[in-house]
Write a structure and sequence with these properties.
315 residues, alpha+beta, 3-stranded antiparallel β-sheet, 9 strands, 10% strand, extended
């Protein structure tokens, strides 16, 4: 066992390496004479700047019985109640045209990077669910006695794993998406699900085959049929064994989701590109984007580690 002094020493080495990496990044920035300004990134994550409230259509400003200003259409319909806003830019009797500013409202709002992060989480979660379901089916086909099912699953796995994900996204969006009139988000989820399912299928197949055959024979001897034995005996044990490689694949799924930006889905990566073009702070933005991806993957890794410990304690 390591002594306390040895642990402190190696922890110090770890900290020194991290500090060295940070120093190298700083010196690199100094070498290219780059002016770091992290404040430029903050409004793109969350901000409370005043938002303009515009008129949805032509009308006039009138006051109601309570003395509150309202935008009223020519037909007498109340379009906007200006009492909800503090900074009002119009007065009673003003004629207002569509698009004119009525007021401004200061409230905390999420920025484009946070919106892109939400899209990345959504597309990753949907893809994760469908990848698990499809991967389970393909994995069971992979070990089936039926040669047609087994060869179909092998063909699927080899084709998907043998072609780049970027090419698959283009095929799903421009070919399949055109035929079935799919939205960008749906096409992205399908492409990611189909791609990830091929790897999930092999992980599940290896997990099932790692269980001793005596487990299946014992279950069948107790009167269970094949599906019952698989669901109640084999798959729970295989799930525990495949959890670490599954976690790695799910983390790859989150990172691979950045490729859907090529079909104009405004995920975190595409939002980062748009922010760079508007803020002229490329290093700060891309470091922030990398940090947000790291938060997602680290959270998933932490959750799976907790699940592993809980399952291990239940044995």
């Amino acid at each position: 066992m390591q002594t306390q002094a040895s642990k402190i020493l190696w922890n110090g080495v770890f900290v020194a390496i991290l500090l060295s990496l940070c120093g190298l990044i700083y010196l690199s920035g100094e070498k290219i004479d780059y002016n770091w300004n992290w404040q430029r990134v903050v409004p793109y994550i969350v901000n409370n700047e005043a938002a303009s409230v515009s008129a949805p259509q032509d009308g006039s400003i009138e006051s109601n019985a309570a003395g509150q200003l309202q935008l009223v259409s020519d037909a007498g319909e109340v379009l906007v109640n200006l009492a909800e806003f503090e900074n009002i830019s119009v007065y009673e009797g003003d004629l207002v045209f569509e698009g004119d500013q009525l007021a401004s409202s200061e409230e905390w709002r999420i920025g484009p990077l946070t919106e892109g992060l939400i899209v990345t989480v959504k597309i990753s979660l949907w893809s994760l669910v469908f990848a698990i379901l499809l991967g389970l089916v393909i994995g069971l086909m992979r070990i089936a006695d039926n040669p047609a099912l087994r060869k179909l699953s092998i063909t699927y796995i080899e084709i998907i794993r043998g072609t780049p994900l970027l090419v698959q996204i283009f095929i799903v969006y421009f070919f399949i998406g055109t035929v079935f009139d799919l939205e960008r988000f749906t096409a992205g989820v399908i492409a990611l699900s189909v791609f990830t399912a091929a790897y999930v299928a092999e992980i599940i197949r290896s997990g099932i085959q790692s269980i001793p055959k005596g487990q299946m024979e014992a279950a069948r001897s107790l009167g269970m049929n094949y599906p019952q034995a698989m669901i109640n005996v084999i798959l729970p044990q295989a799930f525990k064994r495949t959890l670490p490689p599954m976690a790695g694949q799910f983390i790859n799924l989150i990172k691979d989701s950045s490729l859907v930006s090529v079909i104009s889905i405004t995920d975190l990566t595409k939002a980062g590109r748009e922010v760079v073009s508007g803020s002229f702070a490329p290093f700060e933005v891309w470091f922030t984007v990398a940090l947000l991806y790291l938060v997602l993957t680290s959270s998933l890794s932490w959750a799976i580690q907790r699940l592993e410990k809980r399952l291990a304690a239940s044995d």
